[in-house]
Amino acid sequence: MRIAYVLSEAFNNIRRNGLVVLGAVLAVFVSLFLTFGTLIFGEIARINTAKWQDDVRVIAFLSAEFRDVDGLQDEIGSWEEVEVVIYFSPSEAVDEAQRIFADDPRMLQIIEEDPSIIPASLRVRPVDLNDYDTITQRLTNSPGVSDVISADDTVQQIAAIRDGLRVFFWVLAIALGVAAVALIANTIHMAIYARREELEIMHLVGASNWFVRTPFIIEGVFEGVFGSALAVALGVGLYNLAEDRLSDLPEFITLNVDSTFLIGRGLWIIGFGAIVGIIGSGISLAVHKYVRT
User: Helix H segments across the chain?
Assistant: First the structure.
């Protein structure tokens, strides 16, 4: 009977203050939608960065007259910045060039007329993305190396954009999260003030502090959970839409995030929404004299 009364009072409070409750729910929704979006974006960036780190290498082109390829490969492989060194023979390099320029007849003709323009090379995979510059400099000074190309600048720019966007979204999400807590606290404050006479009577007839406070806590939790659930639903929906609509992206970019990640982070966001609701209602209950004897 007490549980039914507490729930009834909580939802009566929500009904009486519908517009204010809607504002609190929307604040939670916006802040946690940005937070959830940041988590998804961060996971996509992590997956692609890891993929680029596996696929993108520093390429050291070898002089045609150089013969000690095995010795150079062993030396480069011993560097602490290097994870793997792969030798590409001239024939393998020509096959690769023909695949790359399959849609460029002019380049294919040049390669077919003089395959020797495609030299042998060593493909070096760094241990860490930050090692590209060091490896490039060392390869440039190595014997037998005629030229070195690297994706260092591109990878660093992508990483910088990723980190910058993540910081921006986190700062914005935190600011809006604080606003959500404040709005929930204000909503509970208005509900308590509107029922101040009723609450005083309840205390006079012996109602405990927790019996009086619980409906307001439930109201705050409802606002937090409902707003966060909407944020998760919209976040997952937009992610699935983006994955379907952007299926023609270049093969080196993937939007494929594991469903267990979405479920796990979605539950985390909903749980955090409940915590926001508890904090917001707790702040209001802590400063209001009508809910304590």
Answer: 2-16, 18-55, 69-77, 90-100, 105-113, 132-140, 152-194, 196-204, 209-245, 259-287
